[in-house]
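Let us practice reading a record.
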Amino acid sequence: MNDHFDGDNRTDPPPMANERATLIGFLRWQRETLAMKCSGLDAQAMATRSVAPSSMSLLGLLRHMADVEHSWFRRIMAGNDIPRLLCTKENPDADFDGAVAEDAVVEEAWRAWRHEVAFAEELVSQIPSLDTPGKKSDPWRGPMSLRWVLIHMIEEYARHNGHADLLRERIDGKVGQ
């Protein structure tokens, strides 16, 4: 049943803009793509795993991206000394492992993801230059510029949106661009 999504309301990135507006536009489009892939599903569908033994699900991806947004923008760029949103040293896969078919878990995942995206958008709007480093260094790579973080986030969403395409098609046959 290969149906397409009705009313694709994603905002196209600007075709003629400066680097900052282009990066922000592509990141917004990737975020909107994940939201579209997860839209209109109940908790059972959101928690549907891809194939054994993988723990990947749309709900897990949504939780994972909330955790990734939190880590890069709150912890690295803003320098907040706070723990990860979901994952810990003891449970590095908590984002996927905790993606269970419960309405409250789905609602919390949406709330957390939207909250982290809003924080990131506000923070990015206040940082004057793409060359501005985060207030904390990444433990593996050292200091990171806003430019690097934005490009990494685009890459992170793009990779996982490919997973989301396959998961959604498996759930109800919906495909997109």
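A brief commentary: The beta strands are 3-4, 174-175.
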